[in-house]
Amino acid sequence: MRRKTSLVLLALAVFFAALSPLLRWYAFPRLAKIPANQYQDMVLEAKDATLIDYNDGMKAKKVSKVTIVQTLKGNVEASEKIEKTAGKDVVVWDGLSYVVGPDGKMVSRIPERYIFDAHTQDPVHATGESVDGDPVKRVGIEFKWPFLTDKRDYQYFDAQARTSAPIHYKGTQTFRGVDVYYFEQTIPWTKVPFPKTMPVQGITPASLARTGTTRWYTTVRKFWVEPLTGAPVYGEELHKEELRGGTLLGGRDKVTVFAGDVKMREDYIRHTVDLVKSNRTLVLLMTSYLPWGFLILGLLLLALSLWLEARSRRPAATKVEQPEPVTA
Question: Is the pTM of this model over 0.90?
Fold first, then answer.
């Protein structure tokens, strides 16, 4: 009986020992993915910013606050259509960056479609990939880092410039009790397109082009990324835009369109940190807790199996019979 039990325990030990690396290196890369129907929004603010006033001689003025609302909505129908030819799990995010001034009026509105691999976050090039209606071909990541982010530089897509540039790993920090990797990217002054939707009626990119005036942009982009989930828990940009040259400026060389330190609003910081902490636990379950737990369980079962096997092979004690007394 002991030998049969030891064999059963040995089989279970082998099973759990084999399951440990399978869960970490086979199951996790296939199970960890961004859901196709995910929706998220974010509100950022630039306080004491500089903003152009198109109705007052196109002068740059100090304002109390500029608000940027960013939304990312999963397009399930589009992702399923692309998956048929891509042969992989695909996520399509329809994004919108909507900027309003202190009076609540629109400053700019830039839609975006981002198509990427649900598991690796690598871009997937398909019809519809665009920024503000312009077709683009992304290189690198945008919005989210890969699961199990490395301590290295990545290529990060800049929607304003329509190009990718390195975003540099700068070290490990702690943000609101979460261990994070800090990344930073600098986009030097670059000529960029005018938004298709302008805040002043009658002004279009085509009419601006006829004046010879151009739009320029620079930013220092900062992200604090939780490495297990690859999700930024906080972001900040030192953002500047200018109009340069042409007849539109009335003889001026340049005018500031917008300048400010864009930061996540406090309530969205708290919500994001709580969400990332919850998702981090799920990733740890698949990459650490269960694999190590199964490995330890397998070793314990192996030890118990060997112990029972050793006991079953031990010779039984021989019973010595006492002689019966002889009666006369």
Answer: no
